[in-house]
Amino acid sequence: MTTAMMERPESAAHGDEHWTYTRLTLYQLLSDFIIYKPSIHLLMKWRRHLERINWDNEAFGRFRVLVADRDTSSLPAFCAAESHEYERLVGRRQSGGIPLRESFYAGGTAEVTACRASAEYDRAGVILNKTAGEKDDELSVELEFIAVLAERMTEGVRSREERERLARIQLGFVKRHLLTWVPSFCAELRSHTESALYLELCGMLEALITRDYRWLSARIDD
C-alpha cells in the first residue's frame, strides 16, 4: 500500500474497509455454493450473512432476492429443484457434468495445473481443508485460497508491508489462475442451465474477480 493510499480521505478509507469485508464474504459464499448442493441449512446460513453486506452489482442484487427475500415456506421446493440442477450440472459422480477444474479450460495437463496451484498455496503458507477429495485446481479450492488470504487482510493488526504482501499474492493468483479460466467456465455453465440461481452465481463470480483484480492492483506499490 502506498503512502498516498494511507493518506486518502476518510470516505475512501471507509470504502476500502467495506470492500475488504465484502470480498471475503463473497469468496466464501461462492465457494460454499460450488461445494454444496443448495439446502435449507445453506440458504439460512447465507441469509444471515447477506444482511451484513452490500454490493452494487446487478447479479448480486438478483441473487439476494432469490435467497434472502424468498418466503420461508417456499424454501423446501426451491432447494429440491436447485439441488437437482446442481447434480445435473456439476455433481461430482456424474461423468457428464461440467468440469470444475482449471486444467480443463486453461490448457495443460491436469497434474501440472494442479501442481502449479498447489505450489502457490504452499508459498503463501496456506493449508486448505479439502473434505471431498477436491483437486488443487478445482474452483472451490482456488476460491477458498483467496478467501483465506482475504480473511488475513481483515485482521486489522497487519503492517502496511504485510498487507501489501498479501495483496500481491492474491493479485498474482487471480491473474495467473482465476482470470485465465473462470470466464470460460461461466460461459459453459450458462450454456447448460436456465436456473436463475446458477446464472446469478456466474454473474457474481465474473464480476467479483474483475473488480477484485482492480482493487488488489491499487493496493500494491510497484
Q: What does this protein structure show overall?
A:
This protein is an all-alpha fold and 222 residues long. The protein is built from ten helices and no strands. The chain has helices spanning 3-6, 10-35, 40-50, 58-67, 75-90, 102-106, 110-124, 139-153, 160-190, 196-218. α2 (10-35) crosses α10. The longest helix has 31 residues, at 160-190. The termini are close together.
What best-fitting shape do the alpha-carbon axes yield?
Answer: globular
Give the CA-CA distance, first to last residue.
9 Å
Give the fraction of residues assigned to helices.
Answer: over 70%
Strand elements, count: 0
What is the makeup of the main sheet?
A: none
User: Number of helical segments?
Assistant: 10
Strand portion: under 5%
Indicate the radius of gyration in whole angstroms: 18 Å
Structural class assignment:
mainly alpha
Order of helices and strands: HHHHHHHHHH
Rounded mean pLDDT is: 88
Concise description?
This protein has 222 residues and is mostly helical. Helices cover 70% and strands 0% of the residues.
Provide the descriptors you would attach to this structure in a database record:
222 residues, mainly alpha
What's the SSE blueprint?
Elements: H1 3-6, H2 10-35, H3 40-50, H4 58-67, H5 75-90, H6 102-106, H7 110-124, H8 139-153, H9 160-190, H10 196-218
Helix pairs in contact: 2-8, 2-10, 4-10, 8-9, 9-10
